[in-house]
Amino acid sequence: MIINGKEMEIRLNGNIYHCPLDLASAFIGGKWKTVVLWYLCEGKKRFSELKKDIPNITEKMLSLQLKQLEKDGFVFRKIFAEVPPRVEYSLTEEGKTLIPTLQAMCLWGRTKAKTQGVIQEVIRKPAKKKSKR
Question: Which of 22, 93, 100, 106 could, after both became Cys, cross-link 17 (CB 3.0–4.6 A)?
Fold first, then answer.
């Protein structure tokens, strides 16, 4: 990036970034992180609730994304000492700083969808019950 006519770089955690967008993408880039963060904007969620909110994500990928977001300080994981154990995920204070950015991205995506695509309801067939034999 160029600031006041000088080429600058960002150094953070042993990595070098060429601009702030490069840095932001390193933390919240990819297909799923922003989606996971978006659903956590609503409040605390259990793993199964997030999986239900994001039906196309695999359990493994959701687990990996949550672990990375927790490691990066955006998500807090609270384990309750119950049987069976209960775990809730929520945004940290730093995670909450992303809400305006996520809202802006959502608005842009909705506008793009309305002007160049189609927004339609998803109709899911009920899961078949397993027969007892």
Answer: 22
Residue entry with tokens 């996971």:
36
pLDDT tens digits for 34-73? 999 999 999 999 999 999 999 899 999 999 999 999 999 9
- Return all residues near 53 (Cβ < 8 A) that are at least 6 apart: 39, 45
Q: Is 122 helix (H, G, I), strand (E, B) or coil?
A: coil
Delimit the domains of the chain by residue range.
1-29, 31-110
- Structure tokens, 69: 């977001």
Mean per-residue pLDDT over the chain, rounded: 90
Helices then strands, counting H and E runs in the chain, come out as: 6, 7
| DSSP category for residue 42 | T
Task: List strand residue ranges (DSSP E) for 6-127, in order.
Answer: 6-7, 10-12, 15-17, 45-46, 75-80, 86-91
Q: Is it true that domain 31-110 has CATH number 1.20.1250.20?
A: no
